[in-house]
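User: Could you write out the 3D structure of this protein bound to fe (ii) ion? I've included everything you need below.
Assistant: Certainly. Input first, then the structure.
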Amino acid sequence: MVEMYAVLRSPLEIVFGAGRRAAIAPMTAELGRRALIVVDPFLATSPELAQLVDALAAAGVESAVYSDVVPELPTRGIAACADAARAFGADVLIAVGGGSSIDMAKTCAVLTAHGGRVSDYYGERRVPGPVAPIIAVPTTAGTGSEVTPVAVVTDETRQVKVGISSPYLIPRIAICDPELTLTCPPGVTAASGADALCHAIEALTARKHTAADGADADRVFMGAGPFTDSLALEAIRSLAAGLPRAWRDPGDLDARSRTMYGATLAGLAFGTAGTAAAHALQYPIGAATHTSHGIGVGLLLPHVMAHNLPARMPEFARIATALGADAADQDELAARAPHLVQELLRGIGIPGSLAEIGFPRERLAWAAAEGLRARRLVENNPVPLSEDAALAILESAYAGSLRHLTPTTTGDAR
Ligand SMILES: NC(=O)c1ccc[n+]([C@@H]2O[C@H](COP(=O)([O-])OP(=O)(O)OC[C@H]3O[C@@H](n4cnc5c(N)ncnc54)[C@H](O)[C@@H]3O)[C@@H](O)[C@H]2O)c1
Ligand SMILES: [Fe+2]
């Protein structure tokens, strides 16, 4: 008998639909009386925010606004947000913005509830208990942070991105209104959309979880399984249908909706399954080049896929089909998947090589060693990632051509 074992973690409620930001105020009123609104700076002076504050007041909720959010979330700003939440006596947080704003609300909630410094919580399951409820309202279609158990911050002392992962960080409610993404410029659409595609593909191809692992009780990111596979595959379909169109025509609401739907599904998938090598290797690349998370993972993804291909042929064939390819031969389909992903991402302006984003060639070995320090991500990769393998992937990404990478054998797949 095939073992039926599946795990999924998610918010209590997810509302998806154009215009559904109208649900923020009434849903907040069910959770608290004093709301700190953590809002992306691009919305700070908008009529939208003024309307939200009025709607909250009409629902009997007092609110204060915190808008000092810096992209990629440097840790130095987080204590100030927590101070603002404490001073206001917030009992609920509303995050409206990109991943940086939602992650600000998550880390702020942790510091407000449990004290200490952000670095006290780096890693998995180090948040000791519940935090104030968060209503997450994304304005980018990318990170999936509205449904995930992780916040990613930039630690300035180490000049790297670090994750805080705990089921307590999952927002209580996610309200996904694609109209809020209509103002994203193409660069933001591309970077956040590439991140979403990477979440879906890394979740679908991650190491597989089994009941015998016992990971459901110990780990936050625990590998792929039936729930997350279904969500990841549908995410890839939806992103393929929406992302290139949303990038070309920012005002196309149907394209925006499909892209945001895909990004949220991808968040649900990786929120339990986790991500892998592309996310691990992006950390040093982002630190050295000051490029966004989405650009880095998008650039690396096809090269990581080429490395992982032999271990995940059936999944790669499904990915190629989800991206619109058609062939009778499943192996041929699978082999096309990294190329199809690269074409899609280049088509929306993701840079083609590490050389193009100014990464110095002589630092490739440093980046390989540094990327391997993200142990949990590396362990989640379907094939083990030695320092040599990480370097080979980075050399391929430096050249920007998939021909430079010789895939490993299937023997050591997990
Ligand atoms: N917590 C998670 O699950 C998770 C997952 C992946 C990535 N991340 C993190 O999220 C961050 C990236 O988030 P992001 O890609 O959403 O970008 P972001 O939040 O950093 O925002 C990027 C830029 O876009 C602007 N912006 C946001 N929405 C806009 C809109 N609708 N119109 C116009 N401008 C808009 C912002 O003001 C900012 O200047 C990184 O720190 C990354 O590491 C978190
Ligand atoms: Fe990501």
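Residues 186-404 form a domain with the Dehydroquinate synthase-like, alpha domain fold (CATH 1.20.1090.10).
User: Perfect, thank you.
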